[in-house]
Design goal:
Among the domains are: 104 residues, no CATH class; 70 residues, no CATH class. The chain is 50% helix and 10% strand. The chain has 14 helices and nine strands. Strand 3 and strand 4 form a beta hairpin.
């Protein structure tokens, strides 16, 4: 079918054809893994001067070496399975599902019997019909459920989680760099539990009810349904999160907590015209400095015209947690005239 012909096909038919393509792709993956096993057993990579079978496969058709290595590894693990290989060759499971099943079976204890392994494999194939990839992967942690006593299953799962968490913490990484355009880039990996905490905080900050906070000129009224694409909403949420870190709980350095000092002249604080300077020399606008001066962990250092300190500020907000509760009880929500926003939405 020509690529431009899809737009003229009835949606129901497109879905049917798309599913057929997915099944065909699964059957092709089964053949690719069979070919990878054949190349691996024949030692073809070494004779061709390749570093590995994955390297050889990637080289042959300009592929991704990492993906090719994963294909070879999955092919090796599936070699001892019968049901999963057959299901993949019939297009009943995807390559991703077969990879999860292979990794799950590989985690079974060494003393498992062939009957138990066969039952576990059949169970995972059945689960693959209804579970997402993420849930199927989690299901493999309790694969012993199908043949072992509960205490043994719990101990096995806990052992897997302990090892996974230890490795995740060891492999955690974070790299940050200055893009020289007023932005910093970053990339990294964090353990699953901490990632869930971060995502929960960001989603709370990126909630539609807070969309008006990113627009200083917004007026009270209906909250916009969408304030940009998800990536930029989460980016703004991450920006807000960075400026609200609980510095009182962070380690101190030389007796001074992890805090940023904003240095600005007294006149700047009054009329908001001249830029200010952060503790590492970064220059920021007067408006940004005035905003930061009110937030946790930001200490405004106000100077006179001859750079003599007039005020060192403080690193606490205007009210405590319990004072905020009292304010919510007193006002019942936002205290701005005619605003009916609940206490949870107020800043």
């Amino acid at each position: 079918m020509p690529l431009d012909a899809w737009s003229g096909v009835e949606p129901g038919e497109v879905r049917r054809l798309s599913a057929e393509l997915a099944r065909a792709k699964a059957r092709i993956s089964a053949q690719e893994m069979a070919a990878a096993r054949a190349l691996e057993s024949a030692g073809a990579a070494r004779r061709a001067g390749a570093t590995s079978t994955g390297n050889l496969l990637a080289r042959d058709f300009g592929g991704d070496e990492g993906a090719a290595r994963r294909l070879v590894n999955t092919a090796k693990k599936l070699e001892s399975t019968t049901h999963t290989q057959d299901a993949l060759s019939r297009g009943e499971v995807t390559f991703e599902q077969s990879s999860v099943i292979a990794n799950g079976l590989d985690k079974l204890p060494t003393d498992v019997t062939e009957t138990q392994r066969d039952l576990a494999e059949r169970t995972l194939l059945k689960d693959a019909e209804r579970l997402t990839i993420r849930d199927l992967r989690r299901r493999t942690d309790r694969l012993m459920d199908v043949y072992a006593a509960k205490p043994d299953v719990d101990a096995h799962e806990n052992g897997i989680l302990v090892d996974r968490e230890r490795m995740a913490r060891q492999n955690a990484s974070f790299v940050m760099w200055d893009k020289k355009n007023g932005m910093h880039g970053y990339r990294g990996e964090v353990p699953e539990a901490e990632a869930v905490m971060l995502r929960t905080a960001l989603e709370a900050l990126a909630a539609p009810s807070r969309a008006h906070l990113s627009d200083p000129d917004a007026t009270l009224g209906p909250v916009p349904e969408d304030a940009g694409d998800p990536a930029h909403r989460m980016g703004r949420a991450f920006t807000d999160l960075c400026s609200h870190l609980p510095v009182e709980e962070l380690p101190s350095n030389g007796g001074v907590g992890a805090q940023v000092v904003v240095t600005l002249e007294h006149q700047t604080l009054l009329d908001g015209i001249a830029p200010a300077t952060l503790s590492d020399g970064t220059r920021i606008s007067a408006g940004q400095a005035r905003k930061l001066a009110c937030r946790v962990g930001i200490i405004p250092m106000v100077l006179d015209g001859t750079s003599l300190p007039l005020d060192y500020g403080q690193s606490k907000r205007y009210f405590t947690k319990y004072q905020r509760i009292a304010l919510a009880n007193r006002d019942g929500g936002c205290s701005f005239p005619s605003c009916d926003r609940p206490p949870e939405w107020t800043e």
